[in-house]
Design a protein that fits this description.
This protein has about 190 residues and is mainly alpha-helical. Helix content is about 70%, strand content about 0%. The longest helix is centred in the last third of the chain and has 23 residues, at about 140-165.
């Protein structure tokens, strides 16, 4: 099974992990399956990554990159057309739903594995989504940050419900719109 074979590009490990997650979900992911996919022994993986968790962390980072792909261009277009900065969170909701429908297992992995930490805030994405030209550092009051966070939790939970079959995409849109109006719509006039 490729004993002693080396991996030329270690990014292939993460590519393979993402592919396995997309095919069978994180529940079906194993280092043995990954090694078989790459044509190497399972032990060879550990020459490149310390453990399974290191591979999963790399897959989470790559998955987040795929999730964010194109989002900030949509937000920039929204803002260029005069859209309110808070409206960027409506774009986030729509972008997340679109990604979830296209990549259901990967999205579930991102939302469940990423829930162990506040990955959105840690990566500065709250400010980046809000701020003009992606620069919003220090612009958000604590109550607004809290309500943005609550809106994000709402759309993440709704996305998981859609993925699990408990809600439809149409209902997601309806509930995320209502959540936006109750949590963030109140601030629109003050941040225009």
């Amino acid at each position: 099974m490729g004993r002693g074979r080396k991996i030329i590009d270690i990014e292939l490990v993460i590519d393979g992990a993402i592919a396995l997650i997309e095919e069978g979900g994180v529940e079906e992911f194993s280092t043995r399956r990954l090694a078989a996919r790459l044509g190497i022994s399972a032990m060879t993986l550990y020459n490149y990554y310390d453990n399974r968790q290191a591979i999963m962390t790399g897959a989470l980072r790559r998955g987040l990159g795929l999730l964010w792909d194109g989002l900030f261009e949509k937000i920039a277009d929204w803002r260029a057309r005069g859209g309110n900065p808070l409206g960027s969170y409506r774009i986030l909701a729509d972008h997340l739903l679109t990604f979830a429908i296209a990549h259901p297992r990967l999205c579930r992995f991102i939302l469940t594995e990423g829930s162990t930490g506040d990955w959105l805030a840690r990566a500065g994405q709250i400010e980046r989504i809000y701020g003009p030209d992606g620069r919003g550092e220090g612009l958000l009051s604590e109550p607004l940050r809290r309500d943005i966070y609550l809106f994000e939790l709402l759309i993440f939970a709704l996305t998981l419900k859609v993925l699990g079959g408990g809600e439809s995409a149409e209902r997601f849109r309806e509930l995320s719109t209502a959540g936006y109006e109750k949590l963030l719509g109140l601030y629109e006039a003050s941040v225009a």
